[in-house]
Every structure is written in C-alpha cells, then in structure tokens.
Design goal:
The chain is of the alpha/beta class. The chain contains 25 helices and 28 strands. The strands form 6 sheets. Strands 1, 2, 3, 4, 6, 7, 8, 9 and 10 form a 9-stranded mixed beta sheet that branches. Strands 17-20-21-22-25-26-27-28 form an 8-stranded parallel barrel, surrounded by 7 helices. It is elongated, with a radius of gyration of 36 Å. 41% of the residues are buried. The protein binds sulfopyruvate and magnesium ion. Magnesium ion (MG) binds next to helix 17.
Length: 667
C-alpha cells in the first residue's frame, strides 16, 4: 500500500495564507502543517511510501518534507503544468509510481485517525463520505447507486452524500481509473477533476462509500475552514508515545530521535533500571536517579519512568502507548525478539511501532569507548563491586588468570530469554594463578608475581576484581597488602582462616591444614580494615570449618566473630557435592545477619543454580577454576594429536582459527 497526496495546486481561495507557502504547509495547531499531519498518520498506520505531487512552490514542499525526516519514503512528482491543469494531470504525471494499492488524498484534507483506520481496514476500494453532514453547495458530493459510488463531483445532488477526496483504491480498480485518466489527458482533457474520469467507468471501478459520519474529515479551502478544523483538532486527544533508553550520555543523536518521537505525541521515556543496564551494557556509570534527572530536563519529554527489564512488556501494559518509537537497528540481531514482543503487545490494542533509520553515531562510539576506558581507572573499578552488590541480589564472578581469560570474563555475553547474561567480576584464584605457572597452590607464587597477573588482567579489562588472598600472610604484612590492592583498584580480597602451610581447600582433610584461631584471624581482619583508605575496598573472611570438618557451629561462630571484627563479607566453603551444609550455613547466618554479603564457590556443589543461591540469600557466586580446567585438557589433547600424527594438520580442528584469535584482541 502506498499513498498518493496531491499538492500541485496554488490554493488561491486561501488568500494571504498561500501567498508564500503552499496550501499543504498551512499550520493547523501546535505548529503542525496539514502535510505533516497526513504523513504522520500514514506512518502511524504503517504506510512506508508516499507519492507527493508538487507544482506551486515545489521547493518549499520538498524542504518541508525533508526537514520532517519521517520514516516514510517520499517520491516527489512535479506537475510542470500545474497552473493550467487540474489534478487529473498531476495523477497522470505520477502514474509510473502508482502500481500498487493506494491511499489517495488531496493535500488540503484533514481527517482524524479513525477515518484513515476504517478506510485501511476496509477490504474493498472505498471513498470517505458522510451521511450526516449537509450536502455542500460547491464541494464534492458522491452519487450512490446500488450501494456503490456512481459519480463524484460538485453537481450531483440526487441520491448524494457529502464526499471527501480520500480514497483507498485496490490496484485492480485503480488501474482502470488510471487508464481512463491517461485517456483524458491524451485527449487534452486536463482541466477537470480525476473523478471526471472515474465517473465514466464507475460500473467497472468498484468504489464503495465509507460513511465516516461526523468524524473529522474536511478539506481546507479558506480561512474559515481552517479556523473550524483547528477548533475540532484541539478536542482530539494527543497520542501517547513511548521510548526506552539505556544510555547515560545524551548526544545530539539522542535529542534528535527524542524530538522526532515527540512530534507524534506526548512522549514518555522509560529508563532501563540500573541492574538491567549492568546486565545489558556491562556497567552503568551514573546512577538511575541522575539519568532520570537528565532526561526529565529535556523539554520534549513529558514523563520519565523506569523500565525494569530489557523487555518492554511491563511498561507497555501499564502505559498502553499509541506509539512505540525505536531505531530500526533492532529488526535483526540480539534485540529482534524484544521487538517481536513489542509488536505483539501493540497489536493487542492497535498501537503502532514507528522505527526511524538508525544512524551509527561515530561520536557516540568514541565517547562510549573513552568512558569505558575510564572504568579501568583504579578509583572507578574498585567501587564497582559494592555498587553491583547494591543493585543486584546476586553477582556472578568467574576466574581469570591472564589477560586473555580476563577478556573472556569481560566480553562474554549470552542472550537468554530476552536477557543479556554476563559476568559481574573476576576472581583471581590462587589455584589457577599457581597452576598456570606450573606450581602447587601453597602460597608459593609470591605477591610480586601475583600482582603482575592482576596487572595483566587489569590492562585489558574494566570489571571488578576479587583477589583470592590465601591466608593473607602475617598480620603485619597484610596491612601492606591491603593498601597495595586498594591502590591498584582491586575491589576485594578474600582471606581464609588458616595458618601454616596452606594447601588447597579441595584437599580437605586429606592433607594437614591448620585453621587459625578466631582471635588471631579477627586481628588480621581488624588490621586490614584499619589499613584501608577508601570505603570501597572489601575484606571478605573465608571460613574453612566445613572443609576441615569442624562442624556447623564452629563455622557460624567464626562467621559472626569475623563480621564483628569488620569483615565486609563471609565466604563459606565446602568440598561436598551435596550443597545442604552450605544452605544450612546460609540459612542460619541469615537468621541473625541480613546484610553481610555471603560468597560461595560451587566447584563441588555445582548442581545448584544461581537462582537457588539467590533465593537462599547468597550474594556472590564464584566460578573459581573452570576456565583453566577447560583450557588444560584442550591443550593436552592438541599436544597429543600433534605428537601422534607428527604434524599439526589433525590438530587444526581443535584449535581456534588464527583470524578469530586476532579479532578477539582489539588493538
Ligand atoms: C582458589 O580458586 O584458589 C580457591 C578456591 O581458593 S578453592 O580452590 O576451591 O579452594
Ligand atoms: Mg585459593
């Protein structure tokens, strides 16, 4: 379906109003022109292309349309003889573009949405008529015969109704009408209405009257018409428009689309909630309240609300906007299903999705990049873990032991059921940091080396880092360690309540491991807390009672004591497959302490889902070693394959293509 709008004529009856402006640019109210209103209505009803005939003050019409920048393709066709011909000739000029079902209207016609809607919904070709308005003296009337339009013109008074030059014509009918128009024009019969041609073939070109009764549907021929129509328009409620934003920087491109959306009606903007922005964009730099303030101060926005999910469902159901506006960049790709849902919801009540062509804003990309780089600055990165814990019930953290595993933790995003899932932070595991160096996990890799690992990861990432601090070393040394970590931007250290030669917890009681006393370990925490200089840094106490089979009571006693000593979180560890002791601990701890974050490392109890942990009251889940454990067997297999075949070809399928490796690492 395409639209044909006739805008070639001079409109001399408008007097002064059309002296310098074409009639279609007459302003109605709120500065909206007749043409603007028509085009927006066409966009609203999903029409993608309009043919606009021009003539009088052609450049002004073209400029006006270009400035409107509506998501509708406009083909301008000039009637060079507009002064000496009627619009039958304008239609003839546009003929080559009219090979479709069409909505045909005069450029001075103002109608309400319901009129166009009924017209478009009609299965047959039809013309807008009114059985309730008195027959006009000089304007169009339609003679009705056998329930169809028989004649259209100003001189038919019998069996006639008031008619307006607004039609929907199916291609088959239109072709017949067009052929007759061409015949008229060939014979030089160009001073008449296009309807004169129709009147000769109305038995073949089946156009039915669509009675719009008292709905607004009027041509504006003079200043009196204009005044009357404007008064009626004032009574029609404005449309409601909805748009969602996740951005925390506002650039001209944003203002541009906001202005375009606001042209369609009263604009409500939904701001993606902080936790959802973190999910979607990795990090929100400014708080939701600040984003609200920014958007509320944009004059074309009437209301700002929060959108709690990437899905628009909740807000669409609550607001029932007439229009949702979005860039067309979500037609394909990860957001396509969100769009599909929006369309489905709008269809339920007759709302419309209006999509503007998306233009990639280089500026935006650059600023995003610059701001993203800032996220790696120690002062910004350090505080992110606490912010995440404030906005999400459960943070998911994965181990990183090198630049490349850091990048995997940083960049991996999975889209599931409309949600972007990604990791909130990185765990620098003692086990992995030792293993990657071919060393046992016994505090053998010293801090010179461990800080180097952290630095390598920090160089290429922005997400918060939790350091596995083993026992934390001597109390006197621990204070220095806290300051160093804090200074470089680490967010938290987890220290375990063990002394002597530390072995990996997953050995449990198979090896000799000694637990620290509550008093001594509390002193370590106190020393660490005294040493730290910012409020951002967290010292998390890890309790080994369950690992060392010292019982639940011991674990809980320690947890409360360490919290009292100032620990910012408690990590409870277990090496059992069965998670019940973990859940028991969390339940009992939560009975007395609702605030202190609880951390778990579900290496052995790996059947528990994040959801289950969240429900139980856990706040951080650390996937502590899966990247290194998956990497080692893959590498071993390749080494064995090469040895076996004595060449590398057979190993190729086991390897990532060099091209992909290169694209993984951005320069
Ligand atoms: C580590 O990842 O180094 C840990 C967790 O400390 S665990 O290996 O389970 O002890
Ligand atoms: Mg460790």
């Amino acid at each position: 379906m395409i639209a044909l709008i006739i805008n070639s004529g001079v409109g001399s009856r408008m007097g002064e109003l059309t002296k310098n402006e074409p009639k279609c640019m007459t302003k109605l109210f709120n500065d909206e022109t007749i043409l603007e209103r028509q085009l927006k209505q066409l966009v609203y009803f999903g029409i993608k292309k309009a043919i606009v005939t021009t003539g009088y003050l052609e450049e002004k019409v073209i400029d006006h349309c270009n400035n409107l920048d509506l998501p509708i393709e406009i083909q301008f066709v000039k009637n060079e003889k507009f002064k000496e011909t009627n619009y039958i000739y304008s239609v003839e000029c546009a003929k080559e573009y009219l090979n479709d079902d069409i909505v045909f209207m005069h450029g001075d016609l103002v109608f309400e949405d319901s009129v166009l809607k009924q017209l478009l919904l009609n299965e047959k070709s039809c013309m807008a008529v009114s059985s309730t308005t008195p027959l006009p003296e000089k304007d169009f009337k339609a003679e009705i015969k056998n329930g169809r339009i028989n004649k259209v013109g100003v001189n038919f008074f019998d069996s006639a109704v008031t008619a307006q030059p607004l039609y929907k014509i199916l291609k088959t009918d239109w072709n017949k009408w067009l052929d007759k128009i061409s015949e008229f024009c060939k014979n030089g019969n160009v001073g008449v209405y296009a309807e004169n041609a129709f009147n000769e073939i109305s038995d073949k070109c089946m156009i039915y009257p669509l009675d719009v009764k008292d709905s607004l549907c009027e041509e504006i021929d003079n200043a009196t018409d204009l005044k009357r129509v404007v008064e009626r328009l004032k009574l029609i409620p404005q449309k409601t428009v909805y748009m969602a934003f996740s951005t925390d920087i506002i650039l001209p491109a944003h203002i541009n689309i906001i202005n375009k959306a606001a042209k369609f009606g009263k604009l409500t903007v939904g701001l993606l909630s902080e936790s959802e922005v973190i999910r979607y964009k990795k990090f929100s730099r400014i708080k939701l309240e600040e984003r609200k303030m920014m958007f509320s101060n944009i004059s074309n926005i009437s209301e700002v609300v929060v959108q709690n999910t990437l899905s628009y469902k909740e807000n669409i159901l609550a607001i029932k906007p007439d229009i949702v506006v979005h860039g067309d960049n979500w037609v394909q790709g990860p957001q396509a299903h969100i769009r599909a849902e929006v369309l489905e919801l709008l269809a339920q009540y007759g709302g419309s999705l209006i999509e503007f062509p998306y233009t990639k804003d280089e500026n935006y990309q650059e600023i995003e990049e610059q701001l993203r780089n800032r996220l790696s600055i120690p002062d910004i990165r350090r505080g992110r873990l606490k912010r995440i814990l404030r906005t999400k019930n459960l943070a998911r953290v994965i181990e990183a032991h090198s630049g490349i595993t850091g990048l995997i933790a940083e960049e991996t995003v999975v889209n599931k059921e409309g949600k972007n899932l990604q990791f909130d932070g990185m765990w620098i595991s003692s086990l992995c940091d030792s293993t990657v160096k071919g060393k046992p996990d016994i505090e053998l890799v010293d801090y010179t080396s461990r800080l180097k690992t952290i630095d390598e990861i920090m160089e290429v990432t922005t997400k918060p880092i939790i350091l596995d601090g083993d026992t934390g070393g001597k109390i006197e040394h621990f204070s220095y360690l806290v300051r160093t970590l804090e200074r470089i931007g680490v967010s938290a250290i987890i220290i375990e309540d063990k002394v002597g030669l530390k072995k990996n917890s997953l050995f449990g009681t198979d090896v000799v491991q000694t637990q620290d006393t509550i008093e001594n370990f509390s002193q370590k925490i106190i020393a660490g807390k005294l040493a730290q200089k910012t409020k951002d840094f967290m010292i998390i106490a890890r309790i080994e009672s369950l690992i060392l089979e010292k019982g639940m009571e011991d674990a809980l006693e320690r947890a409360f004591a360490f919290t009292k000593a100032g620990a910012d979180g408690i990590m409870i560890h277990s090496r059992k497959k069965d998670p019940s002791e973990i859940f028991e601990f969390v339940k009992k701890f939560r009975e007395q302490d609702n605030d202190t974050p609880i951390v778990v490392v579900p290496t052995s109890f790996n059947t528990v889902t994040e959801d289950e942990f969240e429900k139980a009251g856990v706040n951080i889940v650390i996937y502590a070693n899966q990247l290194i454990r998956s990497g080692i067997p893959a590498m071993k297999r390749v080494a064995e394959t090469i040895l076996y075949h004595q060449r590398a070809k057979e190993a190729d399928d086991l390897c990532m293509p060099i091209k992909e490796i290169l694209s993984l690492i951005k320069e």
